[in-house]
Specification:
Largest sheet: none
Strand content: under 5%
Distance between the termini: 35 Å
Length: about 130
Amino acid sequence: MNKLLLIGLGGFTGALLRYSVSGFVQNWSKNTLFPYGTLAVNLIGCFIIGALSQLVEYQNAFSPETCSFVCIGLLGAFTTYSTFGNETVNLMMDGESLLSLASIGLHLLLGLGAVWFGRVKVALIWRI
């Protein structure tokens, strides 16, 4: 039960952060067509999970409870794969095929790149 509570609290926090960060980025971009806010939270989440994975794998930096709170709860709610899917389908339905393909490509390539970059940065900082 304790693990479920930690994941739930992380999810609550992650959802609030996603709403705030995504809205901020979308407003900052001054673009109502392309979902920059969703892209931003997904890339940030990918970078963070990459960095944390590197720390856990090579330094045992976090307890299993902390990993549950952060990786499953907070980052699980912070990143928005379902929102990405919905926004991409909406772009397709609105006849914006090129933007929908750009969204798919950017999320995939930059997301994987952000996970890799997070791992590399932590490896360089911790010299592991």
